[in-house]
């Protein structure tokens, strides 16, 4: 074993369990409505656009993930599928209950996403499969949510184990892959694109080089991998070999949410001005996200008229990004869609705001197979914009933010920004 390999053997005793809620949003709906048990259930994205969650019965009907609802309207009708709009408040609360339940099994836990957590089971002197079953039973009893448990010596293998736990009837919800001896046959059946941290582009490159399965990748030449895919690729190969490279991260991001809102300098009644304002907030919020090395999975946009008029209107929309993002362009795109749904002609709007939530650390973004964005490229662009703006008094703006911005907050009575603006430094007499 070479020098670089030796570093990883230290952590070989680790045991990770990945607990993943099954069809989470659909299961949340079911938890409060027992009549839905055994029936096909789907949940739609904002504005009831696309299918974002499916119960197993709905999957069996051939309803795809992410497809627009109108495309499958006939299937939904003919099979009496129960259709729900998303209820993010409910899902967030159910997630908190599941995580709290899991924390009773071990204090060493990493909440990985709204419906997944890694537990550290190192040092447990019992059958891990039995323990996994106990976790499943308890979560189901306490919260009503079904979960599957995948166990392995690395996070990557725990993810694969979880996949098997879900799909194999024999596994029945729990799969333990800590016995590396039996691993080869299993890895040979896992296509590379199903491996954690392998994005769709990496998968295509790997396949072009003849690396089709997790077993091929596990046996790949490490120098070639390093050359082609850098340190992330190397880590994935080691993780498949049972050497842990991704420790449990127990400290969640400090920030829970990022909010930007302003009262307008004068009432706004045009949808275009509302959009300009909100685009500006997105630009600011994107900067804040990147400053903290975070990305957001959820965005809420709200608008409100003045509190002091008779005909008051307040409304909000929440959207979920397919992949957590810190890209201003994506934030603006989402916010503009929200405004289209929120705007009502005839109202004088006084204030608008956005709240970014479900924040994750940027280097832990969960890849999504449907993701077509070039993340590396967008990150470089954002870095360049942030670097330029940190040096300019008149920052680069996104076209969507508008130029004149007549709605802009008025700061006539604001004192000088002494510490942050060169042109507002206190004069020396
Ligand atoms: Mg899940």
Q: What is the assigned CATH homologous superfamily of the largest domain?
A: Reverse transcriptase/Diguanylate cyclase domain
Number of self-contained structural domains = 2
Helical segment tally?
14
The side-by-side strand order for the widest beta sheet comes to 5-6-1-7-8
**Proportion of residues in helical segments:** 25-40%
Poorly predicted runs are 1-12
Taking the sheet with the most strands, its summary is: 5 strands, mixed
Which small compounds were modeled alongside the protein? magnesium ion
Helix vs. strand class: alpha+beta
Head-to-tail CA distance between termini = 70 Å
The topology string of helices and strands comes to HEHEEHHEHEEHEHEHHHHEHEEHEH
- What's the CATH first level of the largest domain? Alpha Beta
CATH architecture of the largest domain: 2-Layer Sandwich
- Number of separate strands: 12
Q: Approximately what portion of the residues adopt beta-strand conformation?
A: 15-25%
CA radius of gyration is 24 Å
Mean pLDDT: 85
Task: Name the overall outline.
Answer: globular
CATH topology of the largest domain: Alpha-Beta Plaits
Protein described:
The chain has helices at 3-9, 24-31, 56-60, 73-78, 88-102, 128-143, 155-167, 183-188, 200-208, 214-218, 222-240, 271-291, 328-342, 375-389, and strands spanning 16-21, 41-44, 51-54, 82-85, 109-113, 116-120, 147-152, 174-176, 258-268, 294-305, 314-325, 349-361. The chain is an alpha+beta fold and 429 residues long. It has two domains: 9-178, Reverse transcriptase/Diguanylate cyclase domain (Alpha-Beta Plaits); 258-366 and 376-401, DNA polymerase, Y-family, little finger domain (Dna Ligase, domain 1), CATH 3.30.1490.100. Helix 5 (88-102) packs across helix 6 and helix 12 (271-291) packs antiparallel against helix 13 (328-342). Mean pLDDT is 85; it is low at 1-12. Magnesium ion is lined by residues 20-21, 24, 115.
């Amino acid at each position: 074993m070479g020098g670089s390999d030796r570093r990883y053997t230290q952590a070989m005793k680790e045991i990770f369990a990945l607990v993943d809620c099954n069809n989470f949003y659909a299961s949340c709906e079911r938890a409060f409505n027992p009549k839905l048990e055994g029936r096909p259930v789907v949940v739609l994205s904002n504005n009831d656009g696309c299918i974002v969650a499916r119960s197993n019965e709905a999957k069996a009907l051939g309803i795809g993930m992410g497809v627009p609802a109108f495309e499958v309207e006939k299937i939904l009708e003919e099979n009496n599928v129960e259709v729900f709009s998303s209820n993010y408040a409910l899902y967030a609360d159910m997630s908190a209950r599941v995580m709290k339940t899991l924390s009773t099994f071990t204090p060493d836990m990493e909440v990985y996403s709204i419906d997944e957590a890694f537990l550290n089971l190192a040092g447990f002197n019992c059958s891990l499969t039995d323990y996994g079953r106990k976790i499943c039973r308890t979560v189901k009893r306490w919260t009503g949510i079904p979960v599957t448990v995948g166990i392995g010596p690395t996070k990557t293998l725990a993810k694969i184990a979880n996949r098997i736990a879900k799909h194999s009837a024999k596994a029945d919800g729990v799969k333990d892959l800590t016995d590396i001896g039996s691993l080869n046959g299993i890895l040979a059946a896992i296509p590379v694109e199903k491996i954690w941290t392998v994005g769709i582009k990496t998968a295509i490159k790997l396949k072009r080089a003849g690396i089709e399965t997790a077993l091929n990748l596990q046996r790949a030449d490490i120098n070639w991998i390093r050359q082609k895919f850098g340190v992330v690729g190397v880590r994935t190969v080691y993780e498949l070999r049972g050497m842990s490279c991704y420790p449990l991260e127990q400290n969640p991001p400090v920030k829970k949410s990022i909010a930007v809102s302003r009262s307008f300098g004068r009432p706004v009644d045009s949808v275009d001005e509302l959009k300009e304002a909100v685009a500006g907030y997105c630009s600011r919020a994107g900067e804040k996200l990147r400053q903290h090395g975070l990305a957001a999975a959820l965005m809420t946009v709200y608008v409100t008229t003045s509190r002091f008029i008779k005909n008051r209107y307040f409304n909000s929309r929440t959207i979920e990004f397919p992949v957590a993002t810190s890209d201003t362009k994506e934030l603006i795109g989402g916010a503009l869609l929200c405004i289209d749904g929120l705007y009502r002609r005839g109202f004088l709007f006084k204030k608008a705001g956005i709240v970014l939530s479900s924040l994750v650390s940027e280097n832990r973004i969960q890849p999504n197979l449907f993701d077509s964005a070039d993340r590396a490229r967008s990150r470089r662009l954002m870095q360049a914009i942030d670097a330029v703006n940190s040096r300019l008094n008149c920052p680069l703006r996104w076209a969507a933010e508008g130029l004149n911005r007549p709605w802009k907050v008025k700061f006539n009575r604001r004192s000088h920004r002494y510490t942050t603006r060169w042109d507002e430094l206190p004069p020396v007499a």
